[in-house]
Every structure is written in structure tokens, then in C-alpha cells.
Amino acid sequence: MLDGATRSFHVRRDRSRTLKELAVRGGRRRAQATVNALRDVNLRVGPGEAVGLVGRNGAGKSSTLACLAGIVPLDSGRAECGGRVVTLLELGAGFGTDFSGRENIYLNGALHGFERDEIEARVADIVAFSELGEFIDLPVRVYSSGMYLRLGFSIAAHLDADVMLIDEILAVGDESFQRKCLARISERMAAGTTMVLVSHDPSAIERVCRRVVVLDAGRVAFDGGVAEGLAAHHRLLGTVEGGSRSGRPGPGGQLDVVELDLLDALGSPRRVFRPQEAVQVRMAIRAASPADRVVAALEVRDGRGEMCFRSDTAVGAVDGTVEVSFAVEALALLGGDYDVAVGAAEQDAPAGTWLDRVARLSVTPVSDGEGVADLRGAWTVGDREAGVVAGGRSA
Amino acid sequence: MLGENTIKTHVAHVLGKLGLRDRVQAVVVAYETGLVAPEPRPPFDAILPCVLRYRFLFEQMVRRELRQKYKGSALGVLWYLVNPLVLMGAYALVFSVLLRVADIPDYPLFLLVGLIVWVFFSQALLAAAPSLVTNASLVRKVRFPREAIPASVATVQLVTFIVMLALVLPVALIVRDSLDPALALLVPIVVALFALVLGLSLAVAVLHAHFRDVEPVLGAALLPWFFLTPIFLPVEDMPGVGSRRWLGDLLEWGNPVAPFVSAVRDVLFAGQAPSGAHLLYLAAAGAGALVLGLLLFRRMERDLAVIV
Predict the structure, then answer these.
(1) Among A108, A170, A388, B290, which has the highest number of CB atoms less than 10 A from its own CB?
(2) Would you say residue B83 has pLDDT above 80?
(3) Where are the domains of chain B?
(4) Using a CB-CB distance cutoff of 8 angstroms, which residues of chain A are in contact with residue B22?
(5) Which of A374, A354, A358, A351 is nearest to A275 (CA)?
């Protein structure tokens, strides 16, 4: 639990005070650049809850974890964390590099306050989970970062913690191990462990968390459901106006989408739309040299990269710059973030490889309805004899 | 039999009457109204329960230190014997052969006994001072009692000190024929010496984390300190002391290491019990250093995760 947590750090090039400075300045501190890592953050995580912590780099995620764990004290406010806390804040923190993996299990367990017999009972499980095989008896200095993660996570996940704080480290593991980690986290949660997970991987958050807290510049920008939270997070990350390069460049550079705008009903550019709102996707295509049979295409993908919609149209001959629009009367998408990718090419260019400009489209979440498509359905509940007694429209 | 829904209804009513959103808020209110008191961390845990509670962690940390220290060296722990032996040879040569100021039987052994005490003291402080900073990743990323770091470093030095005592003891007993019941006093003397070293180690470690000049200052101070400590001559034989008693008293009592050197030498070399004043001093110095070191550490450890 964090209550009105505020923490600022003094940031200086040379990190610590020296005696000379102390003597010369009589102990007064020089004006220092300060970074307010946390500003009045209120966060209550109940027992057994799993919270995903997201935000840009430098938003205060790691600071939040460090304060929760009691490693870093607060300038003001309170931080409390009940029960046994196991942290996984940095790969290999607290490993003895000349210790074998097995010896490090004991060292790491001891650092988290566990006794020899408690650890002994779990060593076999930890070794099996880590899949390190014979490496477990080699000193960890020969380990790769993925192996560090395997060992570190296996230890943390098998100590009976009441609270687990995990910083963005899972990304180092290969995909199968990441899946295994997430499954293990779910198991621990089922056993009643409280979890706070920092991750930049939306699918990881989605899989294990029921609640997302978005941090921005040391403040809580959003606290709530996972889908809305991730959408809010992506809005914060938002791409620059006019879209950005998609990383899928056109084949010859002959045709370029030079502008991409999302316009609302009044014709002004927007990023965030409500479901069922009118949206116009407007792009400007420029041909470096005259082209005869130009095709423009548009693709909408959701946050996980699944395609939701794709369409293209013949533009005809292009010489110079033409403007192409795609008008949607009522946006049939549910809350979330979508990528709108557009591109233009000669008709015979291989499809799908030339969508070179992308814009982020965020749809505000609605209270009911989950998924991608807004089907505009309506529920009716009726009693067979008395007829309809209640009805409601669903998103 | 109570059904689950009955309980839920009751809980909902209780929350409703208190005007609370959920059970978490109820816990918060319980704390705020003092209905439930959070367990306060005692500002000053006694050292013994602390050590007992984190015994296993401490043991693991000491093993880690030992491993890091002696990896890859052929002589391993024996290197610690080489240093005082070389010093012993050099001082024996200078003081008893060249300068002829020391007229002490078995002078090399006399030197060696003093030197191992000094080497323990100085090496422990020099190793403890940067220990928090070198273990920054640990301090920054894991929550555990940070005292364990300088304490484990000092303990590693204690281990080598005890190994050396074990090597010197039989030699002293044979050469000096100093077997005496007073030998049993060696144990409390070593305990008091360790308390002194531990307290000072905690202090220099946390000070060095805040002020990075502590280690070099310590390194510079230890050399003159060494010569002011009655290691190569007993205090009363030191040049200039003979006529001035106050100087002898100052050298003996003003330097916390000196009485330890004298006491260990009394027991090992002379085969006699140290004076009562000495024993009292050792106990007071050990306990005092430990308490002050711990207090200082507790006071200054707050921001450790940020400054190391």
C-alpha cells in the first residue's frame, strides 16, 4: 500500500557528497537537479490482487516497486507491505558470481529471509523449473542473461511469498519460458499471493493482471481495468501527429504516403474516438514519378497485432500528390488501441508489404462489451408469460 | 450453518454502515483509528536476536565473501599469513639487529603476536569501508538487513584471524612455555576485539557510502596509527616514554587497539593474565564500539539504496 507517496531523487553527475565539499560548504547542499520520481502516488493493492504497472520509461514504475519493497524510503507519505515480500527487481541481484546456481538458491532465499530448511524443501522444484540442467552446478558467472532470469525467477516463484514484486525482467527469457513464468505467476496468485508486475508487454499484463495502474511522470494516470488501462497507456505513448513510419517501407520508394490524419465529424484531427463515432482516415499520396495504376490500402490492427480490417481501392493514375480518404460513418470498434496503417503501391506490387505509414487510433472504453468489434447488439430478457420485463442495449 | 451469501450480506452491511467501499478500506480505517496497531520496527534491535534471526542469511553472506576472496589463488587463506610474516621479518631485522632498541627474548614471536591483532583490525576496516558500495546491486534491489554486508566482511577477517591464532598459539606455547590458565581469557578477548572491529566496520561502511573519501582517509590514517600502536615495542620501552608517564598512558589507553594488543600478548607471549583494568577496558571498548556503530548505521542507512 502506498499512501500519498512522494519521492524525489537528487540527480548529480558525481554521485555522492565528499568530505571536502562538506567542509567547504559547511554541510549545505548545493542546489541539485531533482527528479520527482513519485508524486503523491496512492496505490492500494489488496491481498491476492494482481496489478500491472505500466508507463513510459522514467514514469516511476521501478521507484514504485522499490518503495513498496521498503528498499527506498519515501520523502513523505507511507509505504506498507504486509507479509513476506519477494522482489525480482534486477537480474542476478544478490547472486554470488562464484557460487554455483545451486548455492545461489540458498543465498537468494536467505536474502529474502527464508531459512535453510524452507529453502532445502524447494531446491528440487526450483532446479526443475529453471530447466538449467547441468548448468545448475556451474558458477553463475558463466550464465547468459536468459539463464540468470531462469534461475532468479525460479527461486522467486518457489519461495512462499505473500507479495511478489517483479520488475520488467521477463523480457529476457525465451518465449516458452516466458509462458511458463506467466503460468507460474497465475498459480501463485491462485494460492493467494499478491502480485505487482511491471511490464512493457501488454499480453503479459493481460494474462495475469485484473487491474492496471498507469504511471506518468510520477503520478497515477489511470487505475482500473486491464483493457482500459492498456488503452490509456498507449494513448500516453501516442504517436506523433500525422502518423509515423511503420517500418514496412514501400518497394521502390516510387509512391509514398506523405500525410496521414484521423479526422472527426467536424474535420479536425483527433487520436481518440468514441465507439460509433464518425472517423475519416485521410492520406496524401505522392508519386516521385508518374504512376498509372495506383492502389491505396488501409489496414486496422488491434493492440496485439491481430488484423481487424483491411481494404484497398484503386486510385488510378497519380502524378504529383493526391489525397485519398476513407470515411467510416460509425466506428464499430470497442475500447482499445488500434494501429491504422496505410500505404500506396502500383497494382502489381506484392500485397501487405507496402503499408508504410501508421497512426495510432484509440477508442475510449465503454462499460460493457469486450473484444474488438462493436456489434451494437441489444439484450432483452423476457418472461415467457409476462413478456419483456427488462431490456438494455449492449455496446 | 452460515451460507456464503449470508456472510457477504453481513460484510456488505458492515461496510455500508461505516461508509466504506471495500474491505481494503476497512483495513485502512482499522489502522487509522488505532483498532489495529501496526507492528513497529524497534528502533534498536538488540544485536543478538538480530543475529539469530538472520543467522542463515549471515552464514550465506560470509560464504559468499570467502569464496570471492580466495577464488583462484593457490595459497588461499595462507596469503593472510604471508603478510604478517614478512612484516615480522622486516621489523625483527630493523629493531633487534640494526637498531638494537628491542631487548626482548624471542623478539620475532613478540612482533608476530602484535602484528596478527593489528592485521585483523586494519584489514577488516579496509575491507568493510567500501563493502556497501561494492555490493550496490544488492543494496539497491533486495530488502534485507544491510548490516549483514559489513558484518560478513568483518567476519571473513575474523576467520582468518582465528586461523592465524591457531597457527601461532602452539608455537608460542612451545617457545615461550606460556601455558597458563590465563590462556582461557583469550576467548573473551577475541570476542571483545571482534565487537570493536564489527562496530567500527559498520561505522566506516555506512560513512563511506555517504562520503566517498572515508576509505582513502582510513587507508592514510592506518599507517601512523600502526606506528603509534605498541606492536614492535611494549609501551614502556617506546622511545621517549621512559621519563614521561603521561605519554605512556596516552599511548596505551588513548588508542583502542593498544590494550587489545597488550592483552593478547600477555596471554600468548607472557603467559599471564592481563590486568583487571585492561580486561575492563576491552569489554567497554568492544561493547561501546558495537553499540555506537550499530546506532550510527541505523541512523544513516535510510537512503542507502539511493546513494550507493
Answers:
(1) A108
(2) no
(3) 1-37, 41-307
(4) 46
(5) A374
